[in-house]
Design brief:
Length: 152
């Protein structure tokens, strides 16, 4: 089970995030769950701010990516009635607020990708986009969304 595997890895699922704006955390349609972009929130608040390669170190950005993916998993598990209903992570889209000249967005997102594969095995292997952006909401350094096949 996902929660047990995460515990072995030293992680746990946080409380599922509550949206601050007009959207839902997860939409499920025809066996596919679309998880809205997740911020690196700890206890409901973004704790790391700024652009990667300037105010935010590479290592802190990777930590933020892990927090984002754990938030996404928490929202997903809540929406689909349990981790046993995760069939396959299909795609992860990651956005990294990047200082000029910073171009290691894929390496930042690798932290989230490795966590998914380690926690879910082959079901965690996914297609991915890693995009550098000028700004993210709340001055967060990373935001991650994902698309997941779910069992009905």
């Amino acid at each position: 089970m996902l929660e047990d595997r995460l515990k072995e890895m030293g992680y746990e699922l946080p409380e599922a995030a509550t949206p601050s704006f007009q959207y839902v955390p997860v939409t499920v349609h025809n066996g596919v769950a679309y998880v809205s972009g997740q911020m690196p929130k700890v206890d409901g608040e973004v704790r790391t701010f700024g652009k990667v390669g300037a105010e935010v170190s590479f290592e802190d950005a990777q930590d933020a990516a892990r927090i984002c993916i754990l938030q996404g998993l928490a929202c997903l598990v809540d929406a689909i009635g349990g981790s046993q209903n995760i069939e396959k992570v299909l795609k992860v889209n990651g956005y990294v607020a990047s200082a000029p000249g910073f171009n290691a967005q894929p390496k930042v997102l690798d932290a989230a990708s490795y966590l998914l594969v380690e926690a879910l095995g082959d079901a965690g292997r996914h297609a991915r986009a890693a995009v550098g952006v000028a700004e993210l909401p709340r001055n967060a350094p990373v935001e991650i969304e994902m698309t997941v096949a779910v069992r009905s």
